[in-house]
Every structure is written in C-alpha cells, then in structure tokens.
Amino acid sequence: MGLKVTLCLNIGLSRWSHRVKDVIKKVWKLLLLLTMGTLLGGCNLFGDDDDDDEFAGLSTEAQFYERALDQLNGQNFRGAISTYQALETRFPFGRFAAQAQIEIVFAYYQNDDTEAARAAADRFIRLHPDDDNIDYAYYMKGLSSFTDGGGIFSRFLPIDHTKRDPGRAQESFNDFAQLLALYPDSPYSGDARSRMIYLRNNLAEYEVHVAEYYVERRAYIAALRRAQYVVENFQETPAVADGVAIMVECYLRLGLNELADTSLALLRENYPEHASIGDDGGYIIRSEITNPSLLYTVTFGLVGDNAVDPPLAPTRRPSTSGSQQIINDQQDIDVEEEGRSFLDIITLGVLN
User: Fold this and answer.
1) Is the model's pTM score more than 0.70?
2) Does 23 map to a domain?
3) DSSP 3-state of 201
4) Measured between alpha carbons, how far is residue 80 from residues 100, 104, 190 in Å?
C-alpha cells in the first residue's frame, strides 16, 4: 500500500513539474515577443519618425512643392525625389500633384536612375494624356534610354558603342519617333530628330558589324541578308556603303558573279572612295579572317594569334558563276538536240 502511494505521488509530481515547465516556457516566449516588439518600435524600421523629422514644418501642399523645387534647383535630386513622393502621398489629388509627377521624371533622370525615369514618364502619360506637358513626358522617356557613349570610361578606353546590344537605342528611337508623330510642333521635336539621326546611324552600323561577323565565319547567306537589310532600311546612313561592299563579297563567295557585278557597279557609282575598291576599279576581297585561337582567348590577346593565315575563299573570281554554267550547259544540249536526225530520235539513238 505504501509503495502504491509513493508511486502515485511521484507520478503526480512529475506531471505537475511538466506543467510548470510548459507554463514557464510560454511566459518566456511572451516576454521575448514583448521585448522584440518594444525594440522594433524603438528602432522604427519603417522610418515614420524620420519622415516626420524630414518634413517637419511642412503642412500644406504648396510648402511641400516649394521644398521639392528648391531641392531640385539645388541639385539635391535624392531629396527632391523624396519630397515629391511625400507630396503625392499626402495630396494625391491636389493642384500640384500632376506637376510633381512630371518633375520627378527629371529628378530621376538627373539622379541617373533611368529606369525609374522611364517608369515615371509612362505613368504620367497614362494618368494625364491631355496635360500640357505630355510632349515633355514622351521626350524624357526617349532621353532616359538614349546613350551617346560620352561617359567617363569612353574618354580613356577605345569602346565602340555600335557593337553593343542595340535594344536601348531602338527603344529610344521608337520613343522619339512617337513624340514626332504625335507632337511634330513640340519644342522638343528638333532635339529629338537630331538624336534619332544619331541613333539610326548607330543601328545601321550595328547591323554591319553583325554582317561582318557572319562573313568571317563563312555564313555568307546570313551576312548577305544583314547587308541587304542595311541597304533597304537605313538609306542615307554612312553604313550603306559598307552594306553594299559586304553584298559584293558575299555574292562573289557564293559564285553569283552577275549579282556581284551589279552591286559593285552600285558601289563604284555612289561610293567611289570606298576602301574595298581597288585602283583598277575591282573589288578587294579579304584574304584572312579573325579567328582567335584558344590561347589568344584565355590570355586576353597577350599570347597567340587572332587571324587565320590561309585565305577565307578564293581570291580570284571564277570565270563564270554556277548559274551561268548551268545555262551554258543547257544551250549545248539544245544545240545537240537540234542536230539529231529523225531516225536517231525514233530509235532512241540506236540508229543514226
């Protein structure tokens, strides 16, 4: 009996101790959560107090706008962006809301945040399609994607920007074209047109680089198509001359001499000083191609060779092209057919 009582007491104490431990754990968790909440509230991770301190003394929409304008004129573009955002948050339908939305585009652009500038310009166009500053929004949208290669690195490094991805250039060209189509009399149309000429020249030059790349890798059909695209779609650009020259070379390497002669005549007529035209008026075909070796590639050009010594293709033109040879052969067959006798024809050549 005494043993049973002792066992029951031990079991009861054990259960009680487990319950006490559970209660203590819950209390500690609650205290920990309260402590963390207090710390987070003191740290103010969301910056509400900082915003209140930054805009202390500003209560009206006009005061916010004047502060943002002063920061913008003082080259404090980060501060201007923050103030414009605060103005729109507090007064989304105020009389300065639209003006703040168009001026923040310029602030983003000056802060080198071009993607945000494009997004802000798009937003303004969507929200205020009839605003007096809508042409400026289109202009800033195109300007945000425009790059002229005039950065600090371009002054010291030989960087050819026409070999880079033309995506942003095409984007900027399309934005400026939309501005000219919708608002041809805009005060920004003159500058937009000049930038479009620059971008168009660069886009044409990029296509020429791609065509030359294909020529060096003996993909003559692909190179020919790129060159034809330049000649057909980028008239009056300096790259047209190179496009015609590439067409001549591709036709020669494909054995299409008649088309090569036509293209060469076009090149001589319009661009007589082109580097691919020799003193005798013939076409100077290249005799080696760029083909970097593995050693040249891994050493960044310090060791190894960057060109193939053997000719890329015959440097002398064949006497006739493949198509002309087929025509000549067919004419010989016709002459031979005309000389056959009637007996030879009905006996299938067994009797002559």
Assistant:
1) no
2) no
3) helix
4) 10, 8, 29
